[in-house]
Write a structure and sequence with these properties.
Blueprint (H helix, E strand, L loop, with lengths): L6 H54 L6 H14 L7 E3 L1 H11 L2 E4 L2 E5 L5 E6 L4 H4 L7 E5 L2 E2 L5 H8 L6 E8 L2 E8 L1 E4 L3 E6 L2 E6 L6 H14 L5 E4 L8 H11 L3 E10 L2 E9 L8 E5 L6 H11 L1 E2 L2 E2 L3 E5 L7 E7 L5 E10 L15 E2 L4 H5 L10 H15 L1
Parallel strand pairs: 11-12, 12-15, 15-18, 18-21
Antiparallel strand pairs: 1-20, 2-9, 3-4, 4-5, 5-6, 5-7, 7-8, 10-11, 13-14, 13-20, 16-17, 19-20
């Protein structure tokens, strides 16, 4: 039997609900306002302290102040003060170099380097057709000095910066080969970078991905198509030493390899909270057994790539499209975004992180390989000189991918 609610009771109920809604809204708004006021006061204290430091320094400092260097240093210090190991401030020149690298271009002599046990820089690779190749530099040569700078006294990052510069400028290099030093002037040139190396190993295709960026997908597709035409019955995908940040570029490559489904999730900071965005693949796939090579220098986009292949799911079903061989990865799920500033400099700021297809955040933990294979100290030192026959991780990958063909 239906009961009628008296009009007065209904109005009273509505008044109570409206009053509760108002109170809750006011409490939330007041809390938000108080937080904003607190943040404003904290920022005022920061600015006041910085103004005090600036005033005292300009009044009492006995030396000359380089305004541009001071401004860059303040900005760099601010970002460092965020306490995030992956965020950084980029000067105008550094930002321009980063953009060139993202677009697959590099102005340099065309040699990649690594810090050697001697303290000097050892050449890991010479780019085909580059000034380094044309002037006779070889893999394994030691770079002793660049424009008179002793390379034992600088970091690898600083040495790489010395190799770069404006197109057409020269850099004087002293290098050592077989214990004999030689000197040569090299002219820097704009180079189109290749981020994919590939070849057949027995009946399997091997693809090394050195970086994920805007050019990676087209280069990877070319490599995969070529290997499949050559009759590859399995794929070994090498992302060792790959610490690039473009998860979207890694997702593009995964999309080519995997059938329809969720590749992973990017969680970004929004103005009113975190915003999640799923990365998905279409139905096209490369239906071959796959193995991914990883190591402790596999990070961010490369980890997303490896986890995407290994942990890919369709609904509740785990397809286990690949297995991982090598050592535990870096554990970097933080994603950085380049944010240009008004003076031409930029922030490389952590603005998001990713989750694997099963919802795991790899931060700190990384990916544990299905088959752990460690290199000896000697093999690590001469990593770039290992061959398909002497690299134990490649040998294990071949064993695993061949066994997957039988299962």
């Amino acid at each position: 039997m239906n009961k009628k609610i008296p009009l007065g009771a209904a109005i009273a109920f509505m008044v109570v609900v409206a009053g509760l809604t108002f109170c809750i809204t006011m409490m939330v708004s007041l809390n938000h306002f108080n937080t904003m006021v607190l943040n404003v006061k904290e920022r005022e204290e920061v600015y006041k302290k910085l103004a005090d430091v600036d005033r005292e320094s300009r009044q009492r400092y006995a030396g000359q102040i380089d305004e541009e260097y001071l401004s860059d240093s303040i900005s760099r210090g601010y970002v460092r003060g965020l306490g995030d190991a992956y965020s950084s401030y980029l000067t105008k020149d550094e930002y321009e170099e980063r953009l060139q690298e993202q677009n697959g271009q590099l102005v340099s002599i065309g040699a990649t380097i690594v810090k050697d046990t001697t303290g000097y820089m050892r050449i890991r690779k010479v780019i085909a057709g580059s000034p380094a190749e044309q002037e006779g530099l070889r893999q394994g040569d030691l770079l002793i000095s660049l424009d008179g700078v002793d390379l034992q006294a600088v970091s690898q990052t600083a040495a790489e910066r010395l190799l770069k510069g404006q197109e057409g400028t020269k850099v004087a290099i002293v290098y050592r080969r077989d214990g004999v030093d030689a000197s040569e002037d090299f002219t820097r040139r704009a180079l189109e970078m290749e981020y994919i190396e590939y070849r057949m190993i027995d009946t399997n295709g091997y693809i090394k991905i050195t970086d994920f960026n805007s050019r990676t997908f087209s280069q990877f597709k070319k490599a995969a198509d070529s290997l499949i035409r050559q009759g590859a019955t399995g794929l070994i995908l090498d992302v060792r030493d790959n610490t690039s940040d473009s998860v979207n570029a890694a997702a593009d490559v995964l999309d080519m390899l995997l059938p329809g489904g969720t590749l992973g999730t990017i969680v970004e900071k929004g103005t009113s909270g975190d915003v999640s965005r799923e990365l998905v693949s279409d139905q096209y796939e490369v239906a071959l057994p796959m193995v991914v090579l990883i190591n402790s220098r596999t990070g961010c986009a490369a980890e997303f790539f490896a986890a995407g292949l290994r942990d890919f799911r369709q609904g509740d079903e785990s397809l286990k499209r690949a297995q991982c061989v090598g050592t535990q990865t870096l554990g970097k799920s933080a994603i950085q975004e380049l944010l240009p500033l008004v003076d031409g400099s930029a922030l490389n700021l952590t603005t998001a992180h990713f989750l694997t297809p099963d919802g795991t955040d790899l931060a700190g933990a990384g990916i544990k390989p299905d088959y752990e294979v460690r290199l000896s100290a000697e093999q690590e030192q001469g990593f770039d000189q290992l061959t398909d026959e002497t690299d134990p991780q490649i040998r294990k990958a071949l064993e695993v991918v061949n066994s997957r063909k039988l299962s």
